[in-house]
Design goal:
Elements lengths: L6 E4 L2 E4 L10 H5 L2 E11 L2 E5 L1 H15 L4 H4 L2 H14 L6 E9 L13 E9 L7 E7 L20 H13 L4 E3 L14 E6 L2 E4 L10 H12 L4 E3 L4 H5 L3 E6 L3 E8 L2 E2 L4 H14 L4 H7 E3 L3
Parallel strand pairs: 7-8, 7-13, 10-11
Antiparallel strand pairs: 1-2, 1-6, 3-4, 3-5, 4-15, 5-6, 9-10, 9-12, 12-13, 13-14
The structure holds 4'-deoxy-4'-aminopyridoxal-5'-phosphate.
The site of 4'-deoxy-4'-aminopyridoxal-5'-phosphate (PMP) has 13 residues, from helix 6.
């Protein structure tokens, strides 16, 4: 069982997590009309910091904007957002790397299938940072379900209701004895896993589906690209065929809850473990251990008030 910290942030205050409840008549419950993000909280000695908080805040605002939830941005500027996170952290005891899940819920009761001008509330809670897939040898199955296209429910927006697509793909993979699914788009090109982006290495080049490939614009994806460029590894963002994945030299997934996980098998085809994945993992680990001055200086927000 995932450990959840006892105090949550809900309706502008700190309350016990068991009291943080939404109405069964709210659009959040009726239609999955909520947007969210999850980011890591890094605890090193007395220091507590968040990784790329600005990017997470911006993506949350953008998700709300895409869906037409227009009351959130007016109510929540970045300063208020950080203040609420600090309150939540001070209300709990954090000793280890954890995740904070922040959700903007549409709370109006039975307003019908619409999004504009409706009331929202922001919830936050902290939970244990357990990886969602094995870190050194994940096995994937191509999903029987296709990724929802941008023209239906955009993957670019992190909308709770859209995660039914991820649930279908992941459960199908688990039922078939795999760790996670590999989603394809409607044309058969590679998108991502159920909750992580994908990278492959071919002939020394790091390749990942472009941002217009029905993927979530992952913040770790962006970090991996930046790390690779700093290591002088060429990076290409383009369409990927499934059969390229089968013959990739290396393959890995990345995301907040996947961290960087090497993939060793897709649809029974074995993939090698290699030096580029290892190098990127090393830098990524340094960042999370607070040992990379450049990235720590640029991307960590101190949350000790
Ligand atoms: N794709 C999907 C569908 C996800 O849910 C996630 C996890 N948030 C990612 C990719 C990775 O995104 P990030 O690096 O921002 O965690």
């Amino acid at each position: 069982m995932t450990k959840i910290h006892p105090q949550a942030y809900f309706n502008n205050k700190i309350i016990p997590i068991e009291s943080a409840n939404l109405s069964i008549a709210s659009s959040a419950v009726l239609y999955g009309l909520s947007v969210y993000t999850v980011f890591p909280i890094i605890v090193i000695e007395n220091q507590i910091s968040a990784f790329r908080l600005n990017d997470h805040y911006t993506r949350l605002i953008n998700s709300a904007k895409i869906i037409g939830i227009d009351t959130f941005e007016k109510d929540w500027n970045f300063e208020k957002f950080i203040t609420a996170i600090k309150e939540l952290i001070n209300a709990n005891t954090l000793n280890e790397l954890s995740f904070i899940r922040v959700t903007v819920h549409v709370t109006d009761l039975v307003p019908g299938t619409r999004s504009r001008g409706l009331a929202t509330t922001l919830s936050m809670f902290i939970y244990e940072a357990n990886p969602i897939i094995p870190q050194n040898g994940a096995r994937l199955k191509t999903s029987v379900w296709r990724r929802v296209p941008d023209s239906s429910i955009p993957s670019r927006a992190k909308v709770n209701g859209a995660y039914v697509n991820s649930v279908l793909g992941k459960q199908d993979a688990i039922d078939s004895g795999y760790d996670d699914c590999l989603f394809l788009d409607m044309e058969g090109h590679v998108c991502e896993l159920s909750a992580a982006n994908i990278f492959m290495v071919r002939d020394g080049v790091l390749i990942t589906p472009s941002q217009s490939s029905d993927i979530l614009e992952g913040i770790n994806r962006k970090t991996v690209i930046e790390i690779a460029k700093s290591l002088h590894i060429p990076v290409v963002e383009r369409e990927i065929d499934l059969t390229e994945i089968y013959i990739a030299d290396e393959l890995f997934a990345c995301g907040t809850s996947a961290f960087i996980a090497s993939i060793i098998e897709v649809d029974k085809r074995k993939i090698g473990n290699g030096p580029i994945t290892q190098k990127i993992k090393e830098v990524y680990t340094e960042i999370f251990e607070g040992k990379n001055e450049e990235y720590n200086g640029r991307f960590m927000t101190n949350l000790k008030s």
